[in-house]
Design a protein that fits this description.
The complex is a heterotrimer of chains A (417), B (147) and C (199). Chain A is of the alpha+beta class and 417 residues long. Chain A has 16 helices and 10 strands. In chain A, helix 7 packs across helix 16. The longest helix of chain A has 30 residues. In chain B, helix 1 crosses helix 4. Chain C has 2 domains: 120 residues, NADH:ubiquinone oxidoreductase Nqo5 subunit (Beta Polymerase, domain 2), CATH 3.30.460.80; 25 residues, no CATH class. Chain C is built from 3 helices and 7 strands, in the order H-E-E-H-E-E-E-E-H-E. Chain C starts with 11 loop residues before the first helix and ends in a 58-residue tail after the last strand. Classes of the chains: A alpha+beta (417), B alpha/beta (147), C alpha/beta (199). Chains in contact: A-B, A-C, B-C. Chains A and C meet through helix 10, strand 6, strand 7 and strand 8 of A and strand 2, strand 3, strand 4, strand 5 and helix 3 of C.
Chain lengths: 417, 147, 199
């Protein structure tokens, strides 16, 4: 895209969709003026599998495993929303014990997801030691999830009217030990991500999302809470057992920082939510009532009820990445779902990319792209097309990261001087 | 072409997600990080298919990714081994009746491709390590053929 | 224009009155739901309402009058003679336990599948409006960006995944476990085809 009649030239830089390291295929096209980004446009769809279409051709019980496999990181999230939406549509009440177990599982997942994100963020800035450190400590919660459910990912825990597996008393000590492990390590995490001067240089003032933009673009989750927006489904519209618990909006201003909405605030919010999750699980273990885990243990009876049900329902929860949403409609006499809409958190946060990238440098692309915790996102290969000469060359992810690392080193050099 | 002995002592792998749910992708990274640490066997995740000996494919191959999958396959230098990670890669799994799926991967690759299937939904890191071992043996065999 | 923050959060009755004042008779359906959740019985509030298409933008403005609207998503489905769109809004966010879902329905007849864009009032709606265009075959009038979002560019232009009629996706899937599939010959319509030898 050339600016006619001017000396300066804008280049278009597509990044993605294939990336070697971690994330799902995704493409962002940037407009670059020198080192500055003057425009960003997301092109999703490489991962489009037609989930809703498949769901509309299966019965609700068959959709539970499918909904788990929408995302392998937040498999609990989509199960939870789908099951709540169907329960809403068919007026099925889960037991209170099941509600508490759902909260415990969701919060364990939040811990694993946020620790995972911290590692990814460190990797994008160029600190692979921290990537390995965070992923090492993440294995502890994965062990606990495996201990409770029997699998590391895709837990098959949810069912209509409750959960499939109980968390008996004998499991409490191991849960408590894991929570303690994270509590002790939290100081170190904070020291790394909030105290380290080079990480501060790379994150403070980078990728700013103002409060107005966050509200207008309907952003969700830690991405907008970092800008000072008070949006958290767990508090605003309590689902499962969250209404019984004592929770607070995690905003940077709560801890004496400014609600700037830069990458640093987003890191801060995610780290504080880690502590909050530990607290929520402890509250749950204290208050959990002794009841059955499922209000209707016979699957055939529930399936029959679902076949006769006629209605629509919504499921809305606060995923680690922000609010997510499912809409389900059941039709009488029809075994399959009549309508199913899935909305993940990143869907809404996609629009926040444009203001966050504006005016930043190429070397900041990895960390800003990672800062909304795209589920899971984006980058590995950048291609730069010089519009004037038609010459094109490619940035491999490694090279892009090298640029990012170089910037860190440069900033560090300046610090020493 | 004769392969040197050192070749299969240090396998470099390239990971390509062709529409999977991230479950397997995260487990691949988990296999690289300290708990499972495949790097001690000389296995390294690289950023370009042109540097890779082994391709890790995950996902049922969506329509938009089909040509990119093939492009990456042809960019990888021979001899190469393809590891299909996860059930949806080998049979399209739960996504079998979607309009947006072109897979499974083995129906798209050339017939002489060397494919190793690693099953699980998602695959456990231990199984991935086992799969890489299989790839290793396969490459050793290929070296024997080329002597 | 927006109401004072001191008057927030609005109760469901106040929201109902607001819609009656702004839209009057144009509200075709209005349903309030309350659920008790958990041991303490905290309530979850949900409103379902339907307006005519002519008054659709007024309804959005009425929601924007309460707070900057939070649009979760737009869902839609093929109901036979018409397409139903549901705009899932949320108001009263920021007030613990008070947030209310407003599910705003609009019916579009099959012979005129158009709806005005709401991106002027809710800029974040662009993703979901583009999605509805490609999945339901509706036309969003004055949409700032009408390109495809999820589907491949070389996909058939007149097939839409969420439609149940002849414009739906029936026959577009590849059932690899279906033995009939493998006897099909590759054609320009069905480039995947199958194995000739198995015939």
């Amino acid at each position: 895209m050339r600016n006619e009649g001017k000396d300066e030239t804008t280049y278009e830089v597509p990044i993605g969709p294939i990336h070697p390291a971690l994330k799902e295929p995704f493409l962002i096209k940037f407009k670059i003026d020198g080192e500055r980004i003057v425009g960003a446009e997301a092109h999703p769809g490489m991962n489009h599998r037609g989930i809703e279409f498949m769901g509309m051709h299966r019965n609700p019980y068959k959709v539970i495993p499918l909904s788990e496999r929408i995302c392998g990181i937040c498999s609990i999230v989509h199960q939870h929303m789908f099951v709540t939406a169907v329960e809403h549509a068919a007026s099925i009440e889960p037991t209170n014990r099941a509600r508490y177990i759902r909260v415990i599982m969701s919060e364990l997942e939040r811990i694993h997801s946020h620790v995972l994100w911290a590692g990814v963020a460190a990797h994008e800035i160029g600190f692979d030691t921290h990537l390995h450190f965070t992923w090492m400590i993440r294995e502890k919660v994965m062990d606990l999830l495996e201990y409770i459910t029997g699998n590391r990912v895709n837990y098959a825990m949810w069912t209509f009217g409750g959960v499939n597996r109980d968390i008996p008393k004998k499991m409490y000590p191991k849960i408590e030990a894991t929570l303690k492990y994270y509590e002790e390590l939290y100081g170190k995490l904070e020291e790394i991500f909030l105290g380290d001067p080079s990480i501060r240089l790379r994150t403070i003032g980078v990728g700013v999302l103002t409060k107005e933009e966050a509200l207008n673009l309907c952003g969700v989750g830690p991405t907008v809470r970092a800008s000072g927006v008070r949006k958290d489904v767990r508090i605003d519209q309590p689902y499962a057992a969250y209404g019984d618990l004592d929770i607070e909006y995690q905003l940077p201003s709560l801890y004496g920082y400014k609600d700037t909405g830069d990458v640093f605030s987003k890191t801060l919010v995610r780290l504080k939510e880690l502590v909050q999750s530990i607290d929520i699980i402890r509250q749950c273990l204290d208050q959990i009532p002794n009841e059955d885990i499922n209000s209707e243990p016979k699957m055939a009876a529930t399936l029959n009820k679902l076949k006769k049900a006629d209605g629509e329902g919504i499921g809305r929860i606060e995923a680690p990445r922000g609010e997510a949403f499912h809409y389900v409609r059941l039709k009488e006499g029809k075994e399959e779902l009549d309508c199913w809409k899935v909305r993940a958190s990143t869907y809404n946060n996609l629009a926040t990319y444009a203001p966050m990238f504006m005016g930043e440098q190429i070397a900041d692309i990895p960390i800003i792209a990672a800062c909304i915790d795209p589920c899971i996102g984006c980058m590995d290969r950048a291609e730069i097309v010089d519009v004037n000469t038609g010459k094109r060359w490619e940035y491999e992810h490694e090279e892009l990261q090298r640029l990012s690392v170089k910037k860190t080193e440069k900033l560090l050099g300046g610090l020493k001087r | 072409m004769k392969l040197s002995k050192t070749f299969d002592k240090a396998l470099w792998v390239f990971h390509l997600n062709s529409g999977s749910c991230n479950g397997c992708d995260i487990e691949i990274v988990a296999a690289v990080t300290p708990r499972y640490d495949v790097e001690r066997f000389g296995i390294k995740l690289v950023g370009s298919p042109r540097h890779a000996d082994v391709l890790l494919f995950t996902g049922p191959v969506t329509r938009k990714m089909k040509n990119r999958v093939l492009r990456v396959y042809h960019q990888t230098p021979d001899p190469k081994v393809v590891m299909v990670i996860g059930n949806c890669g080998s049979t399209t799994g739960v996504f079998y009746d979607s309009y947006a799926i072109e897979g499974p991967i083995d129906t798209l690759l050339p017939e002489d491709a060397h494919i190793i299937y690693v099953n699980g939904c998602p695959v456990r890191p231990e199984n991935i390590i086992n799969g890489v071992k299989e790839a290793w043996l396969h490459l050793e065999e290929l070296r024997g053929d080329n002597k | 224009m927006m109401i004072d923050e001191e008057k927030l959060p609005l109760t469901m009755n106040q929201i109902e009155k607001l819609f009656q004042k702004v839209l009057g008779e144009a509200v075709v359906e209005f349903k309030k739901e309350k659920f008790k959740k958990g041991l303490k019985g905290r309530e979850m509030k949900v409103i379902w309402m339907r307006v005519e298409r002519e008054n659709f933008l007024d309804a959005i403005r009425a929601i924007a009058y309460v707070q900057i609207p939070h649009l979760s998503v737009t869902s839609g489905s093929d109901m036979g003679d018409f397409v139903e769109l549901i705009y899932h809004f949320h108001v009263n966010y920021g007030y613990p336990g008070e947030e209310t879902s407003i599910n705003l329905k609009v019916h579009l007849p099959k012979n005129d599948l158009t709806i005005p864009t709401i991106t002027e009032i809710v800029p974040g709606a662009i993703t979901t409006e583009r999605e509805k265009q490609e999945f339901l075959g509706i036309t969003v009038k004055n949409i700032p960006d009408s390109r495809r979002l999820w589907l491949d560019e070389n996909y058939p232009k007149n097939r839409y995944p969420w439609r149940w009629d002849e414009k739906g996706m029936e026959g577009m899937s590849r059932y690899i476990h279906d033995p009939k599939e493998s006897t099909q010959k590759p054609t320009s319509d069905n480039p995947r085809g199958g194995d000739e030898d198995e015939k």
